[in-house]
Structure prediction request, 476 residues.
Amino acid sequence: GLPFDRTPDGKIAQRPFGGHTHHFGQGPVRRSCYAADRTGHMILQTMYQQCIHHNVRFFDEYHVLDLLVQDGVACGVTAYQVLTGEIHTFRAKTILFATGGMGRMFKITSNAHALSGDGPAIALRRGVPMEDMEFFQFHPTGIYKMGILITEAVRGEGGILLNKHGERFMERYSPTLLDLAPRDIVSRAIYLEVQDGKGIDGRDYVHLGASHLGREVVESKLPDIADFCQTYLGIDPAVEPMPVQPTAHYAMGGIPTDIEGRVVIDELNTPMPGFYSAGECACVSVHGANRLGTNSLVDILVFGRRAGRAMARYIRENDFVPLPPEPECEACDEVEHLLSSSGDESVADIREELQATMMDNVGVFRIEGQMQAAVDKVHQLQVRYRRVAIQDRGKTFNTELLEAIELGYLLDLAEVTAESALARTESRGAHSREDYPERDDENWLKHTLAYRTESGVELKYKPVTITSFEPKPRTY
Prediction:
C-alpha cells in the first residue's frame, strides 16, 4: 500500500514505512546507504502527495504491453487491465518509462519480483536499441540463496568477510580498502574464494561477521540488518556470522536517453519524439560502466526532473499525432496466444533455466565459452517459450498470464545482455572477463547499442564523450 493515511479533515497524513526507525552510524558508508534509502522513501511520499494535490489520475493494476509508434513518433501505449482482462489504449503526446531494472534475469538478485525489464523490452521490440547492457552490477553481500541485500552499512560499522578458514580474505585483494573496496572488487574476491574451494562448507558463499562489534552496536546501528537475518535466516548477527554471496543488483545499461530524458534510437543520438525514460531502466550513462553506491538517486532526482520539464515543453509545442491503425492488435494477439496455447512448456521451468544460465555464465566473472553457451541456451529457451502454456485461462487477476508475459521480456533482455558481453573483449567496470582481464581504451572506449532484428541481435557502437575526467586505472 501507499505510505499515507487520511486525517479526519481529509488531509494526507504521513505514516512511516515498516516498523523501524532509521539509525545513522558514524562512518560515511553507513550514512550514505541509509541516506539513500531514506531519501528514496521521501521522494515517493512527496511525489504522491503532490499528485494528490494536483488531482493526478492513477490507473492502478494496468499492465503496459506495447508502446505505440506512428511515423517514428511515440503516441501512446496499450495496457492490460488486471481486474477485467481487457486491453486499453492510452493516447498521449508524451510517454515516460520509469519501470526499474531487470535483475530477475539472474538466479540471485536483490531486485523485487516486479523488476522483469518490462519497459526496456517493450522499447526494444519497437526498434529502440539497448545501450551498455553488458554492464550489470553485482552487490557482494546478498543473503545466501535469497539475494536480499545486506548493505555496506555492516562493513561500514566494521563487519568483515571471512572464508571457511576464518581468514579475512580481502587483505589479499584490496589491502588498502579491505572490506570497503568497491562492490565489483569485493564481488570478484568472493567469487575467487569460492572458486578456490574456500567457500563455507564447500558451497558458493562466505561469511560476513559482525559479532565482534557487540550486541549493542548491532541492535542500535544495524537494526534492519538484524531483523532481516533473524526473519529470513533464523540467525542472530550479534552471535553468528551471516552467509552472503554476490547478488545481481543494478543495471547500468538500458533504454538510451540524452540528458533531457529523451529516448534516442541510434549512434547519432537521434531522439524518438514523444518518448522519454528515467531511472534504472534508462541509460543516460551517468554511471558509466560501474555505478557508485547511492548514485541511483541521480537517475530519479536529476534526470527524472529534467525529463519531466522536457515533456512539459514538448506538450506545449506539439499536437497529438494519429494512432497507428488497430493499435491494440499486437497486444491482443500476445495475450490470446498465451491464453489459448496448448503447448507443453512451463513458465517456471524456462524462467529457472534462464536465471541459472545467466548467473553461471554472464555473472561476476565472464569468459567467451561460457557466454557463448549462454547465448545458445537463451536462443533455445526462446524457441521453447513459443510453446508455453498456462493453466489459468480466466480474465480476473490472472497473475500466471502476467508472469508468462514477463518471461518473454526477460528472455529478450538476457539475449542482448549476453550478446553485448560476448562482443566486448576487455574488462571494464562491472564487466570482468577472465580471458581479457585488462581494459582496452583504444578499441573499447565506446558504448554498445544492441538492436533486435529478424535475424537476431545486431550490435552497433557510439563514442564515449570525455569531459573533465579521463579514464584511469584503479590502483587500490
Q: What stands out?
A: The first strand starts at residue 4 and ends at 6. Residues 1-35 have pLDDT under 50 and may be disordered.
